[in-house]
Design brief:
mainly alpha, two-stranded antiparallel ribbon, 2 strands, 50% helix
């Protein structure tokens, strides 16, 4: 097989496998929830075994609808137009988070960052999204990442949504990817696997 064609097919299969596998896990989870008679996420049981805080939340305003938050975070992974539409409908979605289970928290910015969608990230930042080290890494902002790691070196081991690390985000930095990966590897060398969302740098 032609080498370039083989690499292209391999890249395509890896990406397809990742996406299909993720969709399968979500579908399996939803099916299990349906079998249990539920229609969505189930909150883990909890009973305080410590004194309740003295401060009592007033809950003067209703929370943003969970489905709306979920849709916004999902669309921010890949659909700029729908991201804009939902944020126009509810501006306070900008920093809303979804817990996909077990504390896997994700914002729209986090989703767009680990997908390498600089266009969606740029829009969200312009609207007031809170930039973090994962976003800065994907955007190729080496000095910002260096500042984060100078402030707290242990951030090199931090994990973003779905467990994606800094090195994963660095591979999505486009023309700055090699420089960003090289810097992170100089801090902590790890085995890098092909990133299914990485695109070849433009010339």
């Amino acid at each position: 097989m032609d080498t370039d064609l083989g690499a292209s097919v391999s890249h395509s299969i890896s990406r397809r496998t990742f996406i299909v596998g993720t969709a399968g896990l979500i579908a399996t989870s939803l099916l299990a929830q349906g079998q249990e008679g539920t229609k969505g996420p189930v909150e883990a049981p909890f009973t305080r075994d410590y004194p309740a805080p003295d401060f009592k939340a007033s809950w003067k305003k209703p929370q943003i609808n969970r489905t709306l938050v979920e849709d916004f975070v999902i669309y921010a992974h890949s659909d700029l137009d729908m991201t804009k539409k939902l944020l126009e409908r509810e501006p306070m979605l900008i920093n809303a988070m979804m817990d996909w289970g077990g504390g896997d928290w994700e914002t729209a910015l986090g989703g767009a960052s680990h997908m390498g969608r600089k266009d969606i990230v740029g829009f969200l930042l312009e609207k007031g999204a809170r930039i973090d080290i994962f976003c800065a890494t994907m955007m190729g902002q080496l000095e910002a990442v260096r500042s984060f790691l100078t402030l707290q070196p242990k951030l090199i081991d931090s994990r973003g949504p779905h467990g994606f690390n800094l090195h994963f985000h660095a591979q999505l930095a486009g023309n700055e990817a090699d420089r960003m990966v090289e810097y992170l590897q100089s801090i902590k060398r790890i085995e890098l696997r092909p990133n299914p969302f990485a695109k070849p740098p433009s010339s």
